[in-house]
Design a protein that fits this description.
This protein has about 150 residues and is α+β, with helices and mostly antiparallel strands. The chain is about 40% helix and about 30% strand. The protein has 7 helices and 7 strands, in the order αβαααβββααβαββ. Strands 1-2-3-4 form a 4-stranded antiparallel sheet, with helices on both faces. It has a 3-stranded antiparallel sheet with strand order 5-7-6. The chain is globular, with a radius of gyration of 15 Å.
């Protein structure tokens, strides 16, 4: 199976109709992150879809495992569903494949320090942790993370 075939079966552009299914099946940790951040998940996902290329990562049985995207300066984001935990190996392979096809030399974001499972996952995906950043608005702490690479190697 070629990468192109794998990409066709694993990813597809997201549509507005994907949002209810993803919101209804978000991981518990993702729901807690959203609640702590004080944002509305449907509006956040709609804004992401309006501004950036957004994809749905599909499980082997065709169900959404995540909504994923990256903005023009490399800020990567993802909303994972329970399907990702049902198929963890397939999800990690898909995430690595998606990352390897990004045109950015730098990917970055911040993760709630309480979401230890997500921090472990992104470390396995090659991200490095830079520092802990306090967000005084909600009295929360986030871990700043980055992934760098030379595009010549891909």
């Amino acid at each position: 199976m070629t990468d192109e075939c794998y990409l066709d079966k694993t990813f597809r552009p997201a549509t507005v109709s994907d949002i209810p299914l993803i919101v209804d099946n978000l991981l518990v940790a993702a729901k807690e992150d959203i609640k702590r951040a004080g944002v509305q998940p449907v509006l956040t996902m709609l804004l992401d879809m309006a501004l950036y290329k957004t994809f749905v990562v599909l499980s082997p049985d065709g169900q959404p495992m995540a909504l994923i995207g990256v903005n023009s300066d490399g800020n990567i984001w993802m909303h994972m569903t329970n399907e990702a935990m049902k198929y963890p190996i397939a999800f990690m392979k898909a995430a690595k494949l998606w990352l390897s096809n990004q045109p950015h030399k730098l990917l970055y974001n911040y993760i709630d320090i309480n979401n230890t499972a997500l921090l472990k996952m992104v470390k396995r995906l090659g991200f490095k942790f830079l520092r802990v950043v306090p967000m005084t608005r909600n009295n929360l702490y986030y871990v700043e993370l980055v992934r760098l690479w030379d595009l010549q190697g891909y």
